[in-house]
Fold:
Amino acid sequence: MTVTYSTIKAASEPDAIGQLLADEVIGPVLPSVLVRKVRTREGRRFEAPKVLWNVYEAILELPGGIEVTKLFWTKAFFDDADCRQYRNRISHLLANQRGNPLDPGGYARFFEELNMFLVFFPLDPVFPALSLFFDPDRALPVLSRHFSHMRPDATIRGLRSERIKYLPEISTIIRFEGDIGEERSLNIYGKFQHSRRGQFTYDVMRALWDTPARIKGDLIVAEPLGYYSEYALLLQSELPGDEIEGDRHSPTFMAQCEAAGRTLAHIHNSAIDVGKPHTIDVEIERLGSRLDEFKMSGPKVFTLLRGLLAQIMAKAQRVPAEAAVPSHGDYKYNQFLFDGQRFGLIDVEYFVQAEPSFDLGKYCGHLAPSVPQDWSDTAQANEARRVFLGAYCRVRPEYRGARFSLYEALSLATRALVVVWSQPRNWEYTAETLVALAYERLKTPWGE
Structure:
């Protein structure tokens, strides 16, 4: 029988999931372990009308009052046929359980009445080798030569694997911390990517690493160390720094906008030929195909976006396409790390050959705050946009912005669709505001 959205949503609330853990997962097997709290983590995905994903962290109390946290995720299907297909695909994982939900290698369970699968990290159907790299004895033989490349004089005394980011069945980032007897560990980063995208990412990183701009210090990227197809694992050097926070008023944020403009211009000038052609038709088709998914859940936003998309398509036919350049493909302010002096670029797995306005429009479309707290937030975002575009044009003065408004409007429209998808607080108002700004940007001539 098909399970309704309301049933799955209610069962997916943290308190309900916590009760499920206590009553049916942990309690019956480990009665001395108490489920103290369950909270949501990044990774919720609503792929209407098929499946709802949620990622959680459970705070557990072990005997002796010791607290530990465990990451786990759920995947709930609305249609029985889809559920059966997925259940058959991961049947080996469901059958090969040792009965311990806290097993270091992970744990999986299916709840038939909810069409819901519950999986403890590091078990992942798409990345069967993931648990191997949380076992130091098994991971170090793969990593040792790369540690030697980074520091030939160092001896690895121990290894610790730290999960940095995780999207179930999509990607995982791990920091491998090598103990070399110093205050700070020697670190290598590993990335698991679905669909064997790691080989492509490695090729892009290698091409960027070899560019004159990188060698001169104008382009800061991590060094690619290797790709292991048998594990779907890409290894790279550590890129120092912290993620950029979204405070548009921060001097660091504004400095990043200027650095981002220069960095993008160097990429566009690089003549790297890695990556498939990516036209505006791809972006329009992607938005249009996803739009229909939300005809019922967000009818007003659906109508607004449909009208906007029609105007974008009409203008795209009138304005000739720009010559393609090497393109980052997912260019946003959060694709940089800052170490106090320099901004390093990360996440190049979406690299394509596209119009320069594609990257520029996407970046600027993400500068507008989704929930401004004050008029100055929007004003500062506009200033950040001016700084970014100015820095880009100083390196590439030949850019004329012919199709910039198209791609900026598409970026804002896509953000609105993501808001409808994730449905945070006041999501309808937020989505409508982003669509309104997209209309405005579409009508704004380049340079104004």
